[in-house]
Amino acid sequence: MASRYIPLAFVIAAVAAVVLFAGHQAEILDVVPGGKPDQPAVLTPSATPTEEAFDPLAYDEDKRSVFEQRAAAGLAHPLYAFSPGGAGATAARVARWRAPVEAAARAADVNADTLEGLVFLESAGNEDAMASNDLSGAVGLTQILAETGQNLLGMRVDVARSTLLTRRIRRGGPREAARRAQRRRIDERFDPAKALAATARYLKIARKELGREDLSFVSYHMGIGNLKSVLKAFGEGDEVPYAELFFSSSPLRHPGAWKILAGLGDDSSTYLWRVMAAREIMRMHREDPAGLARLAALHTSKNSAEEVLHPPQTTRVFKDPFDLGRAQADGTLTRLDPETLDGRGIIGSPKMGELAPKLKQSRRLYRALQPEALALLLYLGAGTEAIAGKRPIVLTSTARDLDYQRVLLRRNVQATRNYSLHTTGWAFDVARRYRGRAHAQAFQFMIDRLTALDLIAWVREPGAIHMTVSSRAKELLPLLAPAG
Asked: Can you give the pLDDT at residue 52?
């Protein structure tokens, strides 16, 4: 029996749709620190700068390509984690369609590499991909809806006959090939060349409506009408680049546009970045297959992209308490003294470093981070409070050494027995405790935005969010400077 193939985009969207606070009742924190009026204020991404507050990660039109590249890299992990057979195998399937991709791209005057990325994301290169058993839904190499194919793109789509043939195709047998050929004739969405040509026609229509190629690709998932609503709410005129629309919309600035984007709930807002991530995978497949294999191994070694940010082969690990202490003494790690966090939207759990006595060490030894990781933590805390008000997040774990990790393994079955980013000082944990839904949503916005900036990789654990910080967070280091 032929197997039904669920498109990659649906798998990724289903995973991404599990928001931070879903299924988890907010727990009221019983400790709220006092703020220091002389602390420098920091706003969440895209907040309006003032004399007292600034955003070192604010969108800059002169660096649009950098923002696009970072978003593609930051949101690439699901493509590696969920591509059927792995990213390399999926790239090989997609590469088979390069000639019709180029033909369709020429006809519609769109970028062939981006169209190829769309194919990777939508179907993983499988021309028989189906979103569900209902063939009025999305099917084929580019996942076209029956109604869209018939009414907008001029395709022949006979859903009833296509459904009947699909059932017979699944039974297999000597007539399977003939039935597939017949299905391609009566449901052109299953004809790869015609599906690609139809998708290119859609992109051409969308570009005429929206004025930009990047917006036309966004609309392929979001819809032209929805995207026009976002642009209207954004209010900065016509033909706004999507990078500006995405990175400059937040709960604090252009909140109307952000609310529409967040309310779509189907990963539409990040669709372009995932297409661009797929495009980069296809480039590496052609130009650097060995590099793609190495990157895929790092992406799939953990449940997040943390080893992509800090590969074990090139990252210093602190072996024992003395090594950890030397790193703090020489400035490799920065100690988290109480005044460091006070007034920054963060409180430290008193349990941090609770296993230190078993190593005859002070708990204070296990309250430190790489400077870039600490700067990002301060940005995260301040940004969450800027959105949700004085509601601090709770820091539960920072740097460890291998000796501490071994003690932890005897107490916590969730702890990794392999390479732990905590033993590098680049990772910290934040308790999954929120002062209501608004607080949870603000925190979720912040970590989503930092992910899209390729500054963190994170994973949800039973009691905490485990977060690893990229060394590129050095742009936040000014946040460590004293106020004044």
From this structure: 44
